[in-house]
Amino acid sequence: MTRHPAFLTFAILPFLAAAAWAMDGWTDRNEYDLVLKIRVEASPRKQLELLNQWKQKYPQSAMRQVRRELFLSAYQASGDLPHMFETAGEMVAEDPHNFVGVYWCTLLTPEMKDNQPAILDAGEKAARQLLAGLDAYFAPERKSPGVADADWQKQKSAAGLLARRAIGWVEWQKGDLPAAETTFTGYLQQEPKNGEVASWLGFVLAYEKKPIPAAWQLSRASAMTEEGALPDGGRRQAGELADRLYAGYHGDADGLDKLKTAAAASVFPPADFQVESAEVIRQRKAEAALELADPELSAWLRLSKQLTGPDGEKYFQEALKPSPLPKLRGTVIRCTPAKKPDEIVLGLSSSDAEEVVLKVSVPFAYPAEPGTQLHFQGTADSFTKEPFRLTVIADQDSVVGWPEPKKK
Amino acid sequence: MLKLAHLHLLFFALICTASAQQEEGTRYALVIGNNSYLASPLQNAVNDARIMDKALKDAGFRSTLVENAGQVAFQSSIGQFLSKLGPSDTALFFYAGHGVQIENENFLVPVDFQPPDNLVEAKLKLFSVAILFDYLAKTRHKRTIVVLDACRSNPLGGQNALSAGLAQPQNAPNESFVVFSTGPGKTAADNPNGRNSYFTEALAMEIQKPGLSIDDVLTHTTATVSSETSSRQNPWHISSLKTTFYFHTPLNVEAESTASMAVKWMSDAKRFEQREEWEDAVDRVNQVIQKKPGGGLQAAAENRLGYLTARRDAQAAFDKGDYAAAATAYETAFKLDPFAIDAAFEGVNSYLLEAQVDQAVLLLHDIRVRGATESTVKAMKMLGELTAVNQPAAHEVGSAVPAPPPIEQMFSAVSFGVPDLEGGRLILAITPVDASRFVTEIEVLVPPVAPPADPAAATGAGGDQTAAMSQVLKGIFHLEVAATNETRDLAIRRAAAGSLDSNAGFLQLEGPDKQIPVLYKGQIQYLPAKLPLPAGKYEIQSWQDGKVVGTQEVEIQAGLPQIVTVKR
């Protein structure tokens, strides 16, 4: 019996409509048709249009998590990271343990350029879930057949690092700089060749006002050129900021090359790595200049600084008392007794600061007027911190500048 | 396809080592985006400018972004841009907004442009691309890149003398690369449903990928735009570059070249496949395999080669009338890509022409399983016609409609439930977090170090006065030199040239050798002291015990020393 094709088609259509397409998760054949179109579509933009049609027509599809994965792929191909984050968020909202959603939320949180608490909280939650579920997510049975065991372990390790990256980022953006420093430091201990995290640690250290450790990390991020390095612009930016931090702290770029070489070779500065601050350098130079121009004042400043320091008493007993003092200069504030003084109170760093009591074994025959400048050399006898007072014993001969008696 | 999108990312893994600094001078960019036209506003041009600005900054350009530039802003920003260019620099000008051609000359349209009364007035109110080229040709920089996404429809509609699209440029500078978002005389889409134009979105994305030459960037951009617009828009460029320019230079040029070409060939192969130009598609995929780019790209090429070869052979056999061979080849192709329903139908036709009805029915069964409704209806129709001569066909017609395969089979390349870890790694490599905000904030915290102090001052006692030293100096006699209200701003004058200009003189302070400290600009030195000072009036203050005990005013004149003898 021959059937007319038109009749045949007519006869089949009701059958098609009546068929149960619910197997394998399909709501109906139209849903399958739509997904088939998505599969063959080469343009990510058109794919997204079709995916949105699917979402609108079948919002409660049994395959909605799979659909979100397809959305993720299409957004990924379009470079649309915000929509990827949003989609991953939907996946996690439906299933907080969803590996795909947790992974992308974790990865994309720092890429969002948006520090709204909701985004940071979602990112941190996902990152902590990823870290906690690492063994389950990377269980051997989940590994694709084509992936080697060693590669699977590497991917597990990389996912753990990704979680730390996101956690550190959130800590940083929420203003918890010490926590961020700890997290990023931990990251770099495990994976030293990551320019991005090195630069982030550098930023955090800079915000913490630790310019040299910051310059170290930024310089390191700038020097990396292998896999894991920042792009050109980021490397240049990090390098320029490292230079600026170093010069800002040290006063100029002297020694910067040394830091750069060392930072390129080692993830953290060695324990004995030190850079003098501009302030220290300025003080050292000023002290040297003062030593040249006014050695007596310079000697007194050095000496009094030690005495007023935390180990002042020890310094006095062990270093100062046993040896003769250097030559000093002071301004007379008062003499005791007034007529034939054997104790003269002197100001050394300024003319009104009572700092030294100079005792002479043989009293002077007549007093010196306040403001008289004396040069003297002697030995330290006693010392009090509060009030600051150093008693020096000297021979009359070693006191220079005592004035001639006033003629009556 | 999803697979191809992953492939693109995978390719970049091959070359995603950080690129070397280019050996040239500074890269400057001026990026203008105009939306807010009075007559015909645009939606995406400002967004386009923003994403280009970011992409260029990431590529090491010192980019200036100008949004909604009127006539004045247009001219001043271009003037400032040109003034920065040095001999070995690269200049990139990007414009997104309306552009028109008048009498075969290209003009960019400022946002405050009002419809003119005549052509002369129009030309005066617009910005001439030819004049921009002239300016660029006259500066001494090394290389010019001009990108105009300005080929939108004529903003003035009825003005017939103003034509939409841009004309081919006549006076592009030497060593230049000029890009239009579509061919001369044609218009480009603003993409009303998106945030960016098709062209700029693709271009900015390609620029960010490391290791691509500017030619590769344009090739990839053109392919994307053409695909997105169903070939209605094809970007156009003209180049007189004598050297290869990289936005992000690869470390290993050879490896980059290999991978870059391989991606291009895979992309070509896909287009040939869509056009059913099988021979060319096979050639391209073979080229990829011979280049051995490694990784997923090579694996994908090897996987696809079998299918494409089968399609090519099937087509050739069919054209020669060898339907048996064609049928076998089509069936092979269908097995290699079980969702290539068109191959299955071609196989059915070939089998029927060879009277191998059983084989045809088997394929029709597979079409019923995996095809879309339209295909299954067509398959059922064919089966229905075969029922009279073929029992299996009758059986197939009588059988229930098979359930379609699960979605996992349709996307066999995707492992659902496991994230695309490789893709994630590549996103991190390709789209780094923009750190500009942090850099700016930290720069505010750490002001730049002042230029070195005057040599004369530095050779003295050296070093700023510390707090402790200040305390000391309070007690001893010293001098301070301070600028008076009539003194010019020293910092500004010195910052410009790094040394004193011809308008400077000297203050020579004489006195007891090395006994009296002089404090000037935070530096201590001792008499005799020689202070180079810009012309102006100064006050020499004598200090004792923290108090000013005497002052003396001096006037420094250009080129002349002013000698002051100090006594205690």
Describe this structure in words.
The complex is a heterodimer of chains A (408) and B (568). With 408 residues, chain A is α+β, with helices and mostly antiparallel strands. Chain A contains 17 helices and 7 strands. A 7-stranded mixed β-sheet of chain A has the order 5-6-3-2-1-4-7. In chain A, a hairpin with a 4-residue loop joins strand 5 and strand 6 (389-394). In chain A, helix 4 (64-78) packs antiparallel against helix 5, helix 10 runs antiparallel to helix 11 (195-207) and helix 12 runs antiparallel to helix 13. Mean pLDDT of chain A is 88; it is low at 1-22. Chain B has 568 residues and is an alpha/beta fold. Chain B has a 6-stranded mixed β-sheet with strand order 2-1-3-7-9-10, sandwiched between helices. In chain B, strands 14-13-11-16-17 form a 5-stranded mixed β-sheet. Chain B is elongated, with a radius of gyration of 36 Å. The relative contact order of chain B is 0.07. Residues 1-23, 452-477 and 483-502 of chain B have low confidence and may be disordered. Classes of the chains: A alpha+beta (408), B alpha/beta (568). Chains A and B meet through helix 1, helix 2, helix 3, helix 4 and helix 6 of A and helix 1, helix 14, helix 17, helix 18 and helix 20 of B.
